[in-house]
Each structure stands twice: as structure tokens, then as C-alpha cells.
Amino acid sequence: MTEVNTKVEAKPASAMQTFIAKVGVVLAAACIFLAFAISYVRSELEDPRMFKGGPEFWKGVEARLYKFADAKDLPEEQKARIIEALRKISAKYSPFIEALAPPARKESR
User: Fold this and answer.
1) Which residue has the higher pLDDT, 97 or 48?
2) In degrees rounded to 5, what are phi and psi of residue 66?
3) Are 43 and 35 in contact (CB under 8 A)?
4) What gap in Å lies between CA 61 and CA 67, rounded to an integer?
5) Alpha-carbon gap, residue 44 to 38, rounded angstroms
6) pTM (two decimals)
7) CA torsion angle for 32, 35, 41, 46 (degrees, to 10)?
8) What pLDDT shows up at residue 80?
9) Is the CB of residue 53 less than 8 Å from the CB of residue 61?
10) Tens digits of per-residue pLDDT, 62-86?
């Protein structure tokens, strides 16, 4: 009996074939990522709680305003430090701000 060689030897891939395979894998991964990202953004935009208008919007603004007004105030020491820091910044940068200001207009009658 004669023996049949059933063993197939694989040829090594050329540089171009390897490059095309890598590009294909990267494109497939990018497409899958993009599909999931678009799906997520679409679901978030379709959420009715995201865009409130009219009376609902203003009720929320009013509630946040009352909450802010009733919030605990800063300690006096912290207020003084903040004010002192603002004064230092103002003294340091006021020449630049004044240089940017337009010259005063002379009124002609």
C-alpha cells in the first residue's frame, strides 16, 4: 500500500498579510466600540429626565435656590483667608487688567 501525505504545511504569512490582518482586527474592535458608544449615547439622550422644560425646570431651579440659600455659611476665618487671597491676586494682576481696559472717552459737546 502507498502512503498518502495528509500533513499540510502552513506557509509563514508575508508582512503584507500580517499588516492586513492587524488592520482588520483594529477596525473590528473600533467598530464594536463605536457601536456600543453610539448605543449608550442614544439611550442617554432618550431619557426623559435629561431634558426638562417649562414648569418642571423652574421648580428644580427654585428648589436648588432655596437649598443654596439655606446652606451653612463659611467660617469667618476661611472667609478672611479667601478675601485676603483675592486682594493679593487683585494687587498682583491689576496693572495688566488696567492695561487691557479701553481708554476713557472724552465727551464732546
Assistant:
1) 97
2) -65, -40
3) no
4) 10
5) 10
6) 0.37
7) -140
8) 94
9) no
10) 999 999 998 888 899 999 999 999 9
Per-residue cell: 21: 490582518
Q: What amino acid is encoded at 72 in this protein?
A: K
CB-CB contact of 23 with 17 (8 Å): no
How many Cα atoms occupy the beta-carbon half-sphere of 75 within 13 Å?
3
Residue 43 CA: distances (Å) to CA of 65, 93, 94: 30, 47, 49
* CA–CA gap between residue 80 and residue 74 (Å, rounded): 10
Domain residue ranges in the chain: 14-70, 72-102
Whether 7 shows a pLDDT value over 80: the answer reads no
**H helix or E strand, kind and range, residue 65:** helix 54-69
Helix (H) or strand (E) holding 20: helix 15-45
Q: What is the pLDDT of residues 37-60, one digit of tens each?
A: 999 988 888 776 666 778 888 898
